[in-house]
Amino acid sequence: MKKPLVGALLGLLLVGASAAPALAAQPSAPVARTAHTAKPAQASAVDFAGTVALSNCSGSVVRTPNSQPDDPALVLSNGHCLETGFPAAGEVITDQPSSRSFSLLDSSGSKAATLSASKVSYATMTDTDISIYQLTETYAQTQSQYGISALTLNDQHPVAGSAITVVSGYWKRTYSCNVDGFVYQLKEGDWTWKDSVRYTSSCNTIGGTSGSPVIDTATGKVVAVNNTGNENGEQCTENNPCEVDENGNVTIHQGINYAQETYIIVPCIGAGSTIDLSLPGCTLPKP
């Protein structure tokens, strides 16, 4: 995982330490692309509006294509960014009270407001690595009071070759690259994630970028959430995820970073921003 605050600060002080990954390097062998090939598209400007800084990670205010103005706003980050610590493998958290605060950023990266959570609506590190907080503010309030709209979750699978931007609210920094492909299983320590996004090497994300939205620059929509990278070439250990294909073959790509797809979240969000795991098409892990 991209370590949260403590690891991020150590990473700046101790270059090459395990607390934060070094700059991404080219893999020793070419990384194969998979299906879902992108078509050329006009790039959109990507800025910091709608992103948030957590105490230890990055995140963003997100909505689905069907969210309503008076629905409670949602913040998306990583499961491993929870204030209560990493969820265990197989653990799913729902409707857990939380008073966590988030610094909402404007387009330039300046703090526009402090937002407050009412609960952790959903969090897990099983199959994916996400946390979804419900806020005390609605989408309409965020828009009217601060002039900032939520980012929209794309409801379609991302495509290989797409130009993407990882936007870190914690560091107020962006990383631009492309979707290199998709990983059948990504294993790291006790956790396994499915159908993960692999970046090309120029998205050399560091500790503290955990939870950053991955934005398709052609559409401006969120297609994934940044979460990990192989720091020093180890195999399947913490901070050194390995790729496992359908036949069980294991490969590693030191310096390459990854994200978890977010289109799977959309079918699980019902009226009033409620996370309803029983909705048709919802495949998120259940408690």
Summarize the structure.
6% of the residues lie in helices and 36% in strands. The chain has 287 residues and is mainly beta.
Report on this model:
The chain is mainly β. The protein folds into 2 domains: 5-45 and 157-263, Beta Barrel (Thrombin, subunit H), CATH 2.40.10.10; 55-153 and 269-273, Thrombin, subunit H (Beta Barrel). Strands 1-2-3-7-6-5 form a 6-stranded antiparallel β-barrel. A 6-stranded antiparallel barrel has the order 9-10-11-16-13-12. It has helices at residues 5-13, 139-146, and strands at residues 51-53, 58-63, 72-77, 92-97, 101-105, 111-124, 130-138, 151-152, 163-168, 173-188, 191-199, 213-216, 222-229, 242-244, 250-251, 257-261. It contains 2 helices and 16 strands. 6% of the residues lie in helices and 36% in strands. The longest helix has 9 residues, at 5-13.
